[in-house]
Give the backbone structure.
Amino acid sequence: MPAFPVADAGANLYLDQRRSILLRWWLLLAAAIAVSSAPTMLGLGLPLLPMLAVLVALAGFNAWLQWRSPPASVSAAELFGQLCVDLTALTVLLYLSGGAANPLISLLLIPVAVAALSLPGRLTAAVTLLAVLAYSMLTGVYLPLAIDDVERAARLHLAGMWLTFVVSAAMIAWFVARMTASIRERDSRLAAAREQALRDERVVALGALAAGAAHELGTPLATIAVLVGELERDASIDADARTDLALVREQVALCKGIISGMAQRSGAARAESLRALDAAAWLRGVLARWQAMRPRASAAIQIAGRGEVPRQAFDPALEQAVGNLLNNAADAAAGTIRVELDWDDVWLRLTISDDGQGFAAEVLRRGGREALPASHGGAGIGLLLAFSAVERGGGRILLDNPPGGGARARIELPRADNTETAST
């Protein structure tokens, strides 16, 4: 009895062929036992040698498929060829065992059902035509079974019909279950793709808005810088005012740096132009620049990884993502923010923890998928931008509320020297 591979949409074809090869071995074993035991147990005079020869030929075909596995891909034409081989073997076995009078003749429908699930329309039509031709031929061309007792022949026919129903029911249930699982998986992937597209659309819209804002902010920042310079040259200004003016000048310089770097942070920098940096040194630089913008916030860094610190090419957008997460933590924290850098052979991990009230349930459920209303703990547009920046680099952000209280955001990035391993 033949086995049939299924190549559903989005499935791994190598796994399907491997499963079909294993199933074909089991069915060949069952068919060999049935053919060899029919003369003694059922008293049927079957042509054993020709039928066993067909089974041996099909076993050789299956062994060849197993020897050449795993294939890089299984095309529709190759699946069609396997179905044709299985259909031919089944037709020959039926020819040698009573033809259309054999109640197992209904098994010719199984290749048709499998073709409808796994092949394009024209190849499905070809398999259907071959099955119809095989059935039509077996109505007039076959080797009849010699059974003298009519009553016994009727019982055997009913038993064969029962067996056909059992096999057909099992195969249909298996195929429908697989098809349903495949459809659910496809729907899940489509939903994820739609969600990603909507999120990317929001990020692009925010990028366009940021570009316009940067263009419009250039002039007032330049005006502020000129006024600060003029006030600093005024001899009547006291020392305290000069200190405040120095702070204003520093903040204006930071704003100018942010505006000039928006093109890079929006992804304009090419990946091959980025230099590999020491991860710990990069993180200290990010914290230093963030601390200059948030002088009243406090953050402590801890290097928890063992061995040599990894070197990585960090996208400029990633610094903005870390800054957004630090801002959220600073808005929620009452004490020092804890920043931990860790790594293993596959992942580089950056964990930001605070002692605040923790993420709200809505943030844990929807954070990073869409822009949320900004709250005391942050998690508004900044979180959406952070997720987008990290995911573009093949990483992910995990949010949770640790048992000890507070909130925790962990960035996981694939190591530059293990990108293929991380993706699996």
About this structure: The radius of gyration is 35 Å.
